[in-house]
Amino acid sequence: MNDQRHWLYRPENIRKLWRWGFGILAASVLAQLVFAVHGHFGMDDWFGFNAVYGFLACTGMVLFAKLLGVLVKRDDTYYQDASDKSGGEQ
Amino acid sequence: MSGFAFPPGLILLFGGLLLPFFGATGRRVIVLGLPLVTLWAVWSVPDGPALTARLLEYDIVLVEGDRLSRLFGTIFAIMAAAGGLFALGNARTIELCAAMVYAGASIGVIFAGDLITLFVFWELMAVGSTLVLWSAGTITAYRASMRYLAIHLLGGVVLMAGIAAWAASTGEIEFGRMTEALSGGGLKAAGAWMILAGFVLNAGAPPLSAWLPDAYPEASPSGMVTLSAFTTKTAVYVLIVGFAGTELLIWVGLYMIFYGIVYALLENDMRRILAYSIVNQVGFMVTGIGIGTAMALNGSAAHAFTHIIYKALLLMSAGAVLHMTGRRKCSDLGGLIQTMPLTATCGIIGALSISSFPLTSGFISKSMIAQGALDQHLAFVWFALAAASAGVFLHAGIKFPWFVFFQKDSGLRPPEPPMGMRVAMVIFAALCIILGVAPGMLYEILPAPVDYVPYTGEHVVAQLQLLLFSGLAFFALLPLMKRTLTISLDWDWFYRRLGPILASAVGNVILSADRTFRAAFLALLRRGLDEVKTYSGPDSVAARSWTTAAMVLCAVIALGLYLILLYA
């Protein structure tokens, strides 16, 4: 059955994809050696700033979402229960 | 007065009303042909007022053109055609009718030269969009459409009150820049603030932003494609005209941007993810309007244009998945690339565009808004927008395609959607790439002359780094983003839960007070009746029969008293 799998779901290809992924990441940073990237406000004027900023900003947002989730996440039938109890329009 | 033009919005509006009277072929011709006629009408609108009338003591300007209105009119007409193509053969006739009326009303707003015309089309939009929602035919869609309508009618009332205050204080109803009036005082400022409130409500601004992710995902697969385009972007248009440079809008926009990202990250339903990302993207536009320079406003207008295309494309892709599988939750989906490669490819192109990848449409529009912040040296806004760009890739750019088309194999093997859906997706995917590769086409029709080059080595490298490393963050943090069968509470909790709880609490207080009062009143009444019974009842003194002797005695006493009184 493994041979019938879509190529994206074969383990050896997944490893290959990861390698390519890291290659592209490295290339995007090294490209800065060819195309100079200047910061606009001083504090962002260092090598690889955008890479680090992108990674940290996303990490921050995911963690914030996770924390907020503790407060606001409810079962996905939360409102359905309410409208069923009140009889609804049905 | 600089010429005549037929109101472009009325073409689709009347077309939609006549649609049910035609057969299948006629409908196809109308749904696909009338948007093209509208496109022609949009471009035949000259600059300045083009159709006026007199109503009571006001000059009504039914059609007034400029570069901005033609830009929005163009994309609305294109969207009506593509949305129609996607819906044909799959959607109910009532949805096709409602979608055309809705699109026509939106174009009516775009070309309205005065506040009364604007208001009339604004309300028609609310009716049309509610019907689009409603025609999904499910009980959840019906309930959502009623909540949606309630919020929009509330917005309409605030807008109407604002227009009335504005007309009363200024004596005119021309729709133009109102930014300066906000900082004034009196009735004029109150009017401007209420008009602003009415406008931003439709943009999905806080605190009433929940109407959008609450309602849109309940529409039919094609219904949500249509809904995503018009209401919020009409709001962007009227904000550009009326309130450019209002600083408050920068903060409103930034809130919308991050609200959209965070809520989309928490969400499990693929179409709700995309709904939150509408708020997120409109947030970019609202921020640009708040910055208010020619660069930023061009950016907002351009972003509205490109956003309509890639968001519709994303929703077409999601709609195709929903149409073929009947499933919306990420936790039920996955691995669909195996049998829906075209839908997946189109979805990925939409996802890359929304993330502003170089060579896609989002790259050439969103970066103009950021440039606007940079030109004004708004460091905080610039960094926030950069973080948000990374966040867009995170919540929509990767999350949507990953959980739907890749991740675990759900075992679902749906075929590609019907031809109409496929063609609509391919056309919009092509537009995303064409606009990204050749931005000059769009830049030429923007409201102000464009002095901006998106493709510099520096900009491309910086953007790629930002996006690719946010992609890395996504995969690194994947365990934290495990899909759960949950929804996230939003401000709508206040009117969907707290409101009913408070209403029933107040109702209970009134009920028990009423019950106590009635009981006390009845007790009082009963006591009174008992008294009456004691003195006048059948067994009381007054009801007893008297003997003749007693009667004579009483008469003698009475006469005696009379004598005494006479001589006293």
Provide a concise account of the structure shown.
Chain A is mainly α.
What would your notes on this structure say?
The complex is a heterodimer of chains A (90) and B (568). Chain A has helices at 11-34, 49-72, 78-85; one strand spanning 73-75. Chain A has 90 residues and is mainly α. The longest helix of chain A is centred in the first third of the chain and has 24 residues, at 11-34. Chain A is flat and about 60 Å long. Chain B has helices at residues 8-18, 24-43, 67-87, 93-110, 115-134, 139-170, 179-182, 186-203, 211-215, 221-243, 247-266, 270-291, 294-325, 341-354, 361-375, 379-405, 419-437, 440-444, 457-476, 493-536, 548-567; strands spanning 48-55, 58-65, 486-488. The longest helix of chain B has 44 residues, at 493-536. Chains A and B meet through helix 1, helix 2, strand 1 and helix 3 of A and helix 6, helix 11, helix 16, helix 19 and strand 3 of B. Strand 1 of chain A pairs antiparallel with strand 3 of chain B, so a sheet runs across the interface.
Tell me the β content of chain B. Answer: under 5%
| Sheet with the most strands, sense and barrel status of chain B | 2 strands, antiparallel
Biggest interface and residues each: A-B, 52 and 57 residues
Number of E strands of chain A: 1
- The tally of helices of chain B reads 21
Q: Kindly, what is the distance between the CA atoms of the first and last residues of chain A, rounded to a whole number of angstroms?
A: 48 Å
Which percent bin holds the helix content of chain B?
A: over 70%
Strand order of the largest sheet of chain B: 1-2
What is the share of helical residues of chain A? 55-70%
Please trace the helix and strand order of chain B, writing H or E for each element.
Answer: HHEEHHHHHHHHHHHHHHHHHEHH
